[in-house]
Specification:
3-stranded mixed beta sheet, Helix Hairpins, 2 domains, BirA Bifunctional Protein, domain 2, alpha+beta, 12 helices, 425 residues, RNA-binding
Amino acid sequence: MLDPQLLRNNPEEVKTAMQRHGADLDLEIFNALETQRKDIQVKTQNLQNERNKRSKSIGMAKAKGEDIQPLLDSVSQLGDELKAAETELQGIQSKLQAIQLSLPNILADDVPLGKDEENNVELRKWGAIPQYDFDVKDHVDLGQSLAGIDFEAGAKIAGSRFVTLSGPLARLQRALTQFMLDMHVDQHGYRETYVPYLVNKDSLLGTGQLPKFEEDLFKISDDSPYYLIPTAEVPVTNLVRDEIIAVGDMPLKFVAHTPCFRSEAGAYGRDVRGMIRQHQFEKVELVQVVKASDSEQAHEQLTQHAESILQALNLPYRLMLLCSGDTGFSATKTYDLEVWLPGQEAYREISSCSNFNDFQARRLKARWRNPETGKPELVHTINGSGLAVGRTLIAVMENYQQADGSIKVPDALQPYMGKITSITL
RNA sequence: GGAGAGAUGUCAGAGUGGCCGAAUGAGCACGCUUGGAAAGCGUGUGUACCGCAAGGUACCGAGGGUUCGAAUCCCUCUCUCUCCA
């Protein structure tokens, strides 16, 4: 949510910023509602004041044993008027709120203008793209020949875009998860966190998935208020909802491993082959809650934490700065890490690291107390995948494949793999 | 599944229709006191919105209702605790 002050005081500026982020603000409607709101709010508060004063005088008169009937008569009409004003105010406020909830975050100045991922800007590349003297397979072929990935089983048990893993490949996924968690906890100072995989509506409103993106989510049922989490960002960031954080506890750094569930509505033909785009996948998520003055630096730092996993696994990748059209609704700026997949001969997203500034914090009412002013201030939230485990599994398989179809276990993962050095049939 | 109790400010905890944004205590901050500390004393200490300000409005788990007036009464929901199955 944007700062309502900004919206009221500089609506033109906000409108321009919204257009940059692919949204529109109808100033005519907004200004009209704002004017009405002001009038009716003042009117309502005056009526409330009047009622409070008279009610108080009735109380005092009664205490003195005076006749209160004339006073009662004089307020009889006030109640109806007040109720009407309150109802009207409520209506306007919910309309204004709907507008506010539908507006995306204002993009950072250095976000390049662009329509879609074609316009993202490559900031740096890491690692050499491996050369092979044999025919490279993708993870689907590798997984099938190693009898470790079974799409038919996933489809039978659940449906399309589900998969089963078994044997050493299932273990490899677990190894990756453990490795990532350990690295973020031991070397990067994150606090390991276990959270619910089902969340309520308030949490999704807080991080910005609702009200606009309900179709991307799995809802448990119509009578149950729960949704499956699309990312650990939702439960973890909501830890600070309605909280005022002590200055000594800042910054908060959480890491959580969870499954993620996405309906992938609108991705019909895309990535139908393989494990790239699944309804269910594992992810290790990094979340930081910081002071406003620290958020840019924290965003860079968190991105580097995600990068360090790729580096430790020796997987080539590139860092992309997302353009305006590709940056998510709640983000002010997003870096994507794209890992090299030999099977596709392409870089594919494996992590998305975003700074939300105070956009989520305002919805969440997440604040910290500034000791200099003694006042609560909104925090800034930053999160990123560190990393998407399913896609990392793919990347390891494809990058570490050998001529005989086996997969070498990266050195960093060997302690987690019972010391085996290679995955073979 | 059944029966009961409860949810109040940073915390503990009073308040069962009006003078309650809310006693009291603890904590915290500042000041006094002291050689220094403890104790003691004094003052202050929620959030949001409107307003230049004075001031006003809302908020006592959430949402509705009754009433001139609700933390307090009624209804629904959520959560916590105790007991029974």
